[in-house]
């Protein structure tokens, strides 16, 4: 449907949603008949109000939220009913970045990044923190890519929010993922730091060809960094197209009202000058 | 008794029963609170009558107290200090050994009692066991064990170990459950197994708290070991009770000083290590307390100054 931004040597995986429904145990319907095709190596921004189903959508891709009906295909994996070792294998190929960073704050940055290697680490190495040399090297390279390697042996709690989020990106990178999911990665950050984190994600997408799906609250960020924009409203896709094409009427369909100053990241212009 | 007070009906001229927004509310009755106070008073009075108080003994108490304090501390028998220190070593060893056994046994049990890790069928019996062990004092455990192991320092250590399982088990699963969900979600999303999530999602964040609890339990065990000595399990408590029986008051006085000083020193040292684990910095608890006090005083002074400058 969209121009797949992918070169033959990309390492990204494609994602396909077919008639996906998610109903939570309390009866709340998170997603309603979602159909979506994401090409390998594409960068997609998902926008919508709080509660529109953005978090549910990305969490179905790595099985953190199980789907009720329909099917999601990520690379070679079908998500419906996927369990146990196969589910863990899929998760090891899908990196995730969270709104609140989700680091283990009481250990080093390096250990946090190495947690991305857990799937490939044996039980005794896991228990004794006896990481493989290659994995440590991989983690260091991931930290270099997000330019925070000098903090490798610092405690995660000593880092600022922006630094913590970049460590979280390094952790996702250490998985050597085919897909990176980011659930409102800038929501706990100030505007300048938000741009740094978004640029990191964009660079990872273009340089490594990893498919990136990112939830965003702020529309200007979504338009600037997502080649493609997917608008969600009460669990349904109401827009799917190029970010640049999304005009006032599109925003009205996503947000149920016209665009206001509250929908764009404040101080953006100040940061750019 | 608890009916609506008549004042509302007499004061309000409006025919409606429901008070409007501008009307005064009915005074609440507070009957239950009054009943509880009555009950408490009755219990106190009953307790007062049931205990056989000998008033004349109470009159001579201050005089006797001075007399015995004089016997104990003017001067204490410092010549027996080496014996006392040896006995203290035994008590501390008893506490240390007992706590260690308690840690080894309670750690896996507290993991099994953690919500989200094990089903309720496993959790609740363990939590019940911890609760029962906490409810029984170490002395009672030791007395129950006497018939099996005899009256030795080892019995004391085992009693402390069993008592420790109760507290350490509870503190353990509470720490594991209180861990931030973030790292758990992140490790799960990275494809980690259940064991790996436990090791890196839970344990890394719970570790400082759990280590601190182990030390804190050791401090408690030191105090418990002195009491266990009183029933004959050896150590400083046994020396104390022996000397009380033979009315060697100056040794008793010296022993009391030793118990208090040694317990305080161990509390401070252990507290210092705990501070290092939690805050990342070495500091004696007494120093922490003094620093907080001076900081509070400085804050109060600055508030007073501000208030004064506003006048």
Overview features:
heterodimer, A: 273 residues, alpha/beta, Rossmann fold, 6-stranded mixed sheet, 4-stranded antiparallel sheet, 34% helix, 22% strand, disordered N terminus, disordered C terminus, B: 311 residues, mainly alpha, MetI-like fold, 12 helices, 79% helix
Give a quick summary of the entry.
With 273 residues, chain A is of the alpha/beta class.
Radius of gyration of chain B: 29 Å
CATH overall fold name of the domain at 86-295 in chain B: MetI-like fold
- Overall average pLDDT of chain A: 87
Could you state the CATH homologous superfamily of the domain at 86-295 in chain B?
Answer: MetI-like
**Which ranges of chain B are low-confidence, i.e. pLDDT below 50, for 5 or more consecutive residues?**
1-10
In percent, how helical is the residue content of chain B? over 70%
Helix content of chain A: 25-40%
The CATH class of the domain at 13-90 and 218-255 in chain A is identified as: Alpha Beta
CATH superfamily membership of the domain at 13-90 and 218-255 in chain A, which one? Answer: P-loop containing nucleotide triphosphate hydrolases
**Rg of chain A to the nearest angstrom?**
18 Å
How large a portion of the residues of chain A is in β-strands, by DSSP E? Answer: 15-25%
- Please state how the strands of the largest beta sheet of chain A are arranged side by side: 6-7-8-3-9-10
Described by strand count, sense and barrel closure, the largest sheet of chain A is: 6 strands, mixed
Number of strands of chain A: 10
What is the CATH third-level topology name of the domain at 13-90 and 218-255 in chain A? Rossmann fold
The shape of chain B is extended
């Amino acid at each position: 449907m969209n121009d797949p931004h992918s070169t033959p040597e990309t390492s990204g995986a494609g994602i396909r949603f077919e008639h996906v429904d998610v109903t939570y145990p309390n009866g709340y319907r998170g997603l309603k008949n979602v159909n979506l095709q994401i090409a390998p190596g594409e960068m997609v921004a998902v926008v919508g109000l709080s509660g529109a189903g953005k978090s549910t959508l990305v969490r179905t891709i790595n099985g953190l939220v199980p789907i009720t009906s329909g099917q999601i295909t990520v690379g070679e994996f079908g998500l419906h009913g996927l369990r146990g070792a196969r589910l863990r294998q899929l998760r090891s190929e899908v990196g995730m970045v969270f709104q609140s960073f989700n680091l283990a704050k009481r250990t080093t940055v390096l250990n946090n990044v190495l947690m991305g290697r857990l799937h490939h680490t044996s039980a005794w190495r896991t228990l004794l923190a006896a990481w493989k040399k290659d994995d440590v090297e991989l983690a260091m390279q991931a930290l270099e890519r997000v330019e925070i390697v000098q903090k490798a042996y610092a405690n995660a709690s000593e880092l600022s929010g922006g630094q913590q989020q970049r460590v979280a990106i390094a952790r996702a990178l250490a998985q050597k993922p085919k897909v990176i999911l980011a659930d409102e990665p800038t929501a706990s950050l100030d505007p300048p730091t938000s741009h740094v984190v978004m640029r990191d994600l964009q660079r990872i997408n273009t340089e490594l060809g990893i498919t990136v799906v990112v939830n965003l609250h702020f529309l200007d960020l979504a338009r600037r960094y997502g080649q493609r924009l997917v608008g969600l409203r009460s669990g349904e896709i109401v827009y799917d197209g190029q970010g640049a094409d999304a005009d006032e009427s599109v925003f009205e369909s996503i947000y149920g009202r016209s665009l206001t100053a509250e929908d764009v990241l404040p101080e953006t212009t100040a940061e750019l000058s | 008794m608890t009916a609506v007070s008549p004042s509302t009906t007499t004061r309000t001229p409006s025919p409606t029963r429901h008070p409007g927004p501008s009307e005064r509310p009915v005074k609440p009755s507070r009957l239950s609170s009054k009943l509880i106070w009555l009950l408490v008073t009755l219990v106190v009075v009953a307790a007062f009558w049931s205990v056989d108080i000998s008033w004349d003994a109470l009159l001579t108490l201050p005089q006797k107290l001075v007399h015995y304090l004089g016997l104990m501390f003017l001067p204490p028998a410092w010549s027996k200090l080496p014996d006392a220190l040896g006995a203290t070593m035994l008590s501390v060893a008893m506490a240390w050994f007992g706590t260690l056994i308690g840690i080894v046994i309670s750690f896996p049990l507290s993991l099994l009692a953690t919500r989200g890790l094990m089903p309720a069928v496993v959790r609740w019996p363990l939590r019940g066991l911890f609760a029962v062990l906490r409810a029984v004092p170490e002395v009672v455990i030791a007395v129950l064990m006497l018939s099996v192991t005899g009256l030795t320092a080892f019995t004391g250590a085992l009693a402390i170990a069993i008592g420790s399982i109760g507290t350490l088990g509870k503190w353990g699963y509470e720490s594991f459950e209180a861990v931030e969900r973030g790292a758990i979600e992140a490790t799960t999303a990275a494809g980690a197994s259940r064991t790996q999530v436990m090791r890196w999602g839970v344990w890394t964040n719970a570790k400082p708290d759990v280590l601190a609890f182990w030390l804190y339990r050791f401090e408690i065990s030191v105090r418990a070991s002195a009491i266990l000595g009183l029933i004959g399990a050896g150590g400083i408590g046994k020396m104390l009770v022996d000397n009380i029986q033979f009315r060697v008051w100056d040794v008793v006085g010296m022993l009391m000083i030793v118990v208090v000083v040694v317990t305080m020193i161990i509390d401070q040292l252990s507290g210092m290590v705990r501070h290092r684990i939690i805050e990342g910095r070495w500091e004696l608890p007494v120093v922490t307390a003094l620093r907080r006090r001076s900081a509070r005083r400085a804050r109060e002074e600055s508030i007073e100054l501000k208030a004064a400058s506003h006048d």
